[in-house]
Amino acid sequence: MFTRAEARRFVPRGDEDPQRDPALAWELLYRLEPDLYDRLATAERLHPAVVAWLPREVGTIAEVGAGTGRLTLELIDRAQRIAAVEPALGLRRILRRKLAAADHGNRVTVTQGFFDELPLPDDFADLVLSCSAFTTAPEHGGEAGLTEMERVCKPHGRVAIVWPNHLDWLAARGYEYVSFPGPMSAVFASHRDAVQLAEIFYPEAVREVRRRGRRTVPFDVLGINPPRDLAFKVLAA
Ligand SMILES: C[S@@+](CC[C@H](N)C(=O)[O-])C[C@H]1O[C@@H](n2cnc3c(N)ncnc32)[C@H](O)[C@@H]1O
To answer: Considering only CA atoms, which of 31, 67, 36 is closest in space to residue 197?
Structure first.
């Protein structure tokens, strides 16, 4: 199910085991069950302050690893042009469907691509983003991916990694960290949906999710850090 370019990055040896490699298991999920992934990502909403922090009137935005558009859909009124880059075909299809329903005025283009080989020219965007996608692993960004994000960002432009991991690694590369406080919950489509998704993604939380009987579940209960933070860098002239 991987394209050649995907296989080169995600299964370079050919005998990788998704049971032992959670990052590979996620890549399989995006391709085998894109709608299931979308149900999860839709429930795990970003902290509104993260979205509010992003600049409002921007010429061009590039987003890498856009997925099914958790962040992309928040951006459509902020820029004249948005390039959403996403490798997984099934996720691109869902994103295109959502954009069509959101009436984005043809401002957003969705293209196939990877962190380490962005299909965008130098100095393309005022704001270059990634949400819950960038890691230090080369197949999910790494040094080459960060260099690419900065390459496509204009001088004085901003690169931001939303919901980042590896804060020390990013700080060593000049990224500042912002986190927004307050209680946060995932909001599932229904209590039934919350239980079903917890059974798959948060098995240790299932009993509590079932007991609460609500579609809103605090991230603490799920046992994950909420999407309340970002790391950013303003590029030099
Ligand atoms: C957890 S999902 C996040 C998707 C979306 N940004 C969101 O917040 O819902 C991670 C995303 O990174 C994408 N991804 C994985 N490896 C990538 C790579 N090398 N280059 C670009 N995107 C990648 C996946 O296809 C997936 O869409």
So the answer is: 36
Q: Could you say which residues of the chain have pLDDT below 70?
A: none
**pLDDT value of position 117:** 98
Q: Separation of 65 CA from ligand 1 center, angstroms? A: 4
Burial of 10: CB neighbours in 10 Å, binned 0-12, 13-18, 19+: buried
In terms of residues, how long is the chain? 237
Candidates 61, 68, 130, 119; CA nearest to 93 is 68
Q: Is 87 helix (H, G, I), strand (E, B) or coil?
A: coil
Instruction: Answer for the pair 58, 39: CB distance below 8 angstroms, yes or no.
Output: no
Pocket of ligand 1 (CB under 6 A): 9, 30, 41, 64-67, 70-71, 86-88, 91, 114-115, 131-133, 139-140
**Burial tier of 159 (Cβ tally within 10 Å: 0-12, 13-18, 19+):** buried
Ligand 1: distance of its center to the CA of 140 in Å? 8
Give the pLDDT score at 165: 94
The gap from C-alpha 134 to its chain's centroid, in whole angstroms, comes to: 8
pLDDT at position 105, please? 79
Q: By three-state DSSP, how is residue 221 classified?
A: helix
Which of these, 28, 43, 24, lies nearest to 216 by C-alpha position?
A: 43
pLDDT score, position 104: 81
Residue 225 Cα, ligand 1 centroid: separation in angstroms?
Answer: 18
State if pTM tops 0.85.
yes
Say how far apart CA 45 and CA 131 lie, in whole Å. 11
| pLDDT the model gives residue 171 | 98
